[in-house]
Write the structure tokens for this entry.
Amino acid sequence: MSQENVVESLLGETTQKKKSRIPARLDFLQSATGLFLAIFMIFHMLFVSTILISKDFMLSVTKAFELNFIFEGGSPVPVFIAISIVFVVFIFHAFLAMRKFPISYRQYLRLKTNSDLMNHGDTKLWIIQVVTGFALFFLGSIHLYTMLTNPGNIGPYASSDRVFSDLMWPLYIVLLIAVEFHGSIGLYRLSVKWGWFEGEDSKVSRKKLKKAKIILTVVMLTLGVMTLMAYMKIGYDHQENYGEKYMHTTEVNHAN
Amino acid sequence: MSREITITTLKYNPSDENSKPTFVDYKLEETPGMTLYIALSKIKATLDHDLTSDFVCRAGICGACGMIINGKPKLACKTLTSEFKDARIELLPLPTFKLIKDLSVDTGSWMKNMSMRVNSWIVTNEEYDISKFEKRIEPEVADEIFELDRCIECGLCVAGCSTAIMREDFVGAVGLNRVARFSIDPHDSRTDEDFYELIGDDEGIFGCMSLLACEDYCPKNLPLQSKIAYMRRKMVKV
């Protein structure tokens, strides 16, 4: 045990008689990891929703992530590395964010009473973040671990089989709702927390940010539901051939 | 045509061991332009001489009559009874502050502790000569300082803040606003490092969760969201 830590723990200040800089770093990192995950959430949705355009296009995007322009036929390693990074950031963000949770009956009761009495929008938004964040501890971890152990098993049929035949769809429905609410509210709250896009009048810009948040939630949820339905449909049609990989149309034509 | 309104208040005297927290209904005739301050005065004068609530200025200046009005932290003197269409108004004392009796809370001790904690005064290394004019500052800067100095320490920002409600050692928007006020004042020689020593922890700026009830319920419309974000940006760089 370092003497520095012992002194800070006992006295609340360092040996230099200064306050620790750790709370500042933690606050910054909570926001930074949240921003990273929210941006990831948006791009993840855009990539998985390519199935709505065509199976071929979705496969091309998947193969691009497998760096098929470097490795012949693509490699699962880059995907594994990307998922690992996201998983580490996800765990770190959860660790940092849960510091703010109500942790005792008294805190919970006071928060709930205050929120119910006031019926205040931004307080309720944060409570939605707490609830969805708690759900994401489990839902997100299951999804990320599944992908981490199947980095080469992403594609029009592989993903659809996972959604339908592997019965991941009930989890994905809840995950989709939790992540889209958590992410879009998180982006709004990050903006007001750090004063981004504040402009001349913070009250006016806050209203605009709130509108943008609602639009983002609606767009992402709509896209998410449509995408999930598309994978369900493909998975349903493909259940007899479970495990078979999708071949790009040009490859099939070439083989024929 | 006037209507009858029902005001329900919590009645409790923590210093009386026989007192139990109870809700009491008062029915009274609404008069034109009636504020809750007037309604409470009428109740105290005609219906219940024992009911306790605070007031001083009756004009939204002193901040003494803060209370929870139908769930929201507000000043009784600035709230018209006509705002409540169903003619039912429920009053609670402000949470977080020490309850004195009924609707009366001790915001003074809390604010004094907060002021001491954030060193809510000008700190300067310069010799001060009271026979000379104060050092001049730009009018825009003075305006910005005066804007933040309009805080009346009514405690509504603290009462509305779920962080302060859960964690009673949180300094609150009122404290962070104080620090922001001195940090922009050229008369104050403190650096960001010095301010970090006052609010650079989870009970200070990093405890704030940006729930913004402080901004939404401030009766003086202070730019709390903006100033807390400003202090956060400064403190995270220290």
